[in-house]
Amino acid sequence: MSRTAALVPAAGRGERLGPGAPKALRPLGGSPLLVHAVRALSLARGVDVVVIAAPEAEVDSVRTLLSGVVDDAELIVVSGGETRQSSVARSLFALPEDVDVVLVHDAARPLVPVEMVERVAAAVRSGHEAVIPVLAMVDTIKAVDADGRVVATPDRSILRAVQTPQGFQRTVLQQAHAEAEIDDVTDDAGLVERRGVTVSTVPGHEEAFKITRPLDLVLAEAVLTRRRAGGVVA
């Protein structure tokens, strides 16, 4: 029987957050960002395996940290690479043979709603090769040259902000990583697009924002406080 796995590349330093622990281990509401993200993934229906690519020096501590967070799902922790792309590749290599659907999620999106995880996974299981959650752009976007001069104003009605988890048929994602000639792609959908794979979209969620700057942590704390006041745990 086939299974679904969620991969979490969590080996980055997160330098834009300032000095301190690796980004995935920064605290939010008393727990590391990684704990919040993994809890949401493990609560999603149909997620059977969770693979974490942790900083090399933190593999054992991350395994201990998450042992009580992942309930029914199988937990695998591997040493991450120097880049996000290499961390995902290492996670793919560690997958059990019976996994055929793969979700890739940023640890820096700790407040992803469980229903959004399920929406992406369901779309892949229904037959799509690659699926990404997206949000419509609300700001006007400008293209600028190296000197900072505006060269174009794209039509924002066709632009979307991309979130995670991104979902894939396992063979599609594995082939994309195996054939990748560069190691600077910022999302896995970009890799499969280069192979001509059609990437489908589903609605994202405003609370699945990425924590990159200190201000993002302030916003995340506010969202988490509101959730807890309403009795929501993930």
Number of domains: 1
Largest sheet: 8 strands, mixed
The ordered H/E elements are: EEEHEHEHEHEEEEEHHEH
Tell me the span between the first and last alpha carbons. 28 Å
Assign the structural class, choosing from mainly alpha, mainly beta, alpha/beta, alpha+beta, or little secondary structure: alpha/beta
CATH hierarchy, class: Alpha Beta
Assembly state: single chain
Number of beta strands: 12
Walk me through the structure.
- The protein has 234 residues and is an alpha/beta fold.
- It has one domain: Spore Coat Polysaccharide Biosynthesis Protein SpsA, Chain A, CATH 3.90.550.
- The chain has helices at residues 33-43, 59-66, 84-93, 114-125, 170-179, 188-194, 214-229, and strands at 3-9, 27-28, 31-32, 47-54, 74-79, 99-104, 130-136, 143-144, 150-152, 160-162, 166-169, 199-203.
- Strands 1, 4, 5, 6, 7, 10, 11 and 12 form an 8-stranded mixed beta sheet that branches. A two-stranded antiparallel sheet has the order 2-3. It has a two-stranded antiparallel sheet with strand order 8-9.
